[in-house]
Amino acid sequence: MDETLAFLADYAAGLTFDDLSTGAVHEAKRRLIDVFGCALGAYPSEPATIARAHAAESTGNPGATVFGTGHLSSAESAAYANGVMFRYLDFNDMSMARNGGGHPSDMLAALLAAAEYGDADPRRFLTGLVLAYEIADRLADVCDISIGRGWDYPTWIAMGSAYGASKALGLQREQIAHAVALAVVANVSLYQTRRGTLSMWKGAAGGNACRNGLFAALLARRGMTGPAEPYLGDSGFFNQCAGGPVELPRFGGDGHPFKLEESKLKYFPADYEAQTSVHPAAELRKAIGGRLDEIDKIEIQTYGVAIMIAADTPAKWAPTTRETADHSIPYLVALGLTRGDVGIEDFTPERIADPELRALMAKMTITENPRYTEAYSESTFFHIKATLRTGEHHVAEIRYPKGHPKNPMTDAEVEEKFRHQAAPLMGAEQMDALLDRCWSLEDARGLGEIMALTRLAYQA
């Protein structure tokens, strides 16, 4: 067993609920409420429908519940279907990892399935969730695998899911090590998923990584062994994906904060780089009033990663799919200018093709500000200047968007986000019951009790 695998297996095996801070436990509950809201908003979407249809073809005994249906599928199929629903709207949380950790709450799909399958105590589930964030985001802090090297964030999701699911399943140290080794060597994802015109897979890749991380843990539980040097071997993860060995950072516990406490929630349903731009655009809308047709040019400055992700190709300047539109800075800025908000209703084909939005997008330029790039990922600066034909100009800037740890969403705002997505599918009584159970998670009999509360009358 290589030194990195041994260290991480020791940490995973040793972490207990009593080691978790009050803040970490509370944030874990907020993430659960947040992804349930995201799942309800995404429930009618085509990718979610496809994933649920696939999960409906199998029955688990033991198994795990497919969100919204009450159907007990195999744990892996439930993790995939739920992961697609949690992620598809691009509305769930965002990592604060230095090199980009993606969307760590994707991993809740693996953790929920593992905990229900293994009849885990909710405290063990919460411990596994904190662990999953800790492993994935600490490694993403020190390993640069993403845009520059061409690997995608589900690489971290598969890895973190294997750790978290192993904890939820009650695996011992050696089993955890084998589970992670199986997940690491088999689940490196390509960044091409997020380049150019984006397909349904953009919102489904995280769920696939959850399924694979959980599958690795289930195999290890039965005795399957994995490679002994998944991280430090000559052809291991560090050499192949990260450019060589790295020095591991300090991990959470003993008074040191956990990474879950640092992740960013989303206020708008879009890629983080694109949705951050909505805030200053909405400010400019107020300053300009109804004079949008008088705008001559819109100059946007931001950090380099934002441009690479959300303004990198012609497709981002003329989106035709929901997946591309929610990763388009020009499109999101145009929405912010026209109505000061963004909702899931803004991603229909008709809305994406709106001539008013296209006209505004044609007036935009986006350039990298080196100072903003240097400040990333602690800060996500956007500076927008709108100049009217008269020469009059207005400027708006943001550093910490709503949902950032330095500009956090309140518990009431997290609940409101959930209710807004849930209202078309759930009655008030069901919403209240599900929220109450999430906030009092430690007192639940098990995760199956919570998943049962997600069953919808509408189950297409």
Q: Could you give a short description of this structure?
A:
The chain is of the alpha+beta class and 460 residues long.
Which keywords apply here?
460 residues, alpha+beta, 2-methylcitrate dehydratase PrpD, 2 domains, 6 strands
| CATH class category label of the largest domain | Mainly Alpha
- Helix count from the secondary structure assignment: 22
Total tally of structural domains: 2
Percentage of residues in DSSP E strands: 5-15%
Largest sheet: 4 strands, mixed
**Straight-line N-to-C gap:** 47 Å
Level-2 CATH architecture of the largest domain: Orthogonal Bundle
CATH fold type of the largest domain: 2-methylcitrate dehydratase PrpD
What is the total tally of β strands?
6
Question: Mind explaining what this structure looks like?
Answer:
The chain has helices spanning 3-14, 22-42, 46-55, 75-87, 108-117, 122-142, 154-168, 173-186, 205-221, 237-241, 272-276, 278-288, 304-310, 314-317, 322-325, 329-339, 349-352, 355-361, 370-375, 411-422, 428-439, 447-452, and strands spanning 64-65, 72-73, 295-302, 364-368, 382-388, 393-398. With 460 residues, it is an alpha+beta fold. Strand 5 (382-388) and strand 6 (393-398) form a beta hairpin. The radius of gyration is 22 Å and the shape is globular. Helix 1 packs across helix 8 (173-186) and helix 16 packs across helix 18 (355-361). The chain has two domains: 3-267 and 425-452, 2-methylcitrate dehydratase PrpD; 272-398, 2-Layer Sandwich (60s Ribosomal Protein L30, Chain: A), CATH 3.30.1330.120. The strands form two sheets. A four-stranded mixed sheet has the order 4-3-5-6. A two-stranded antiparallel sheet has the order 1-2.
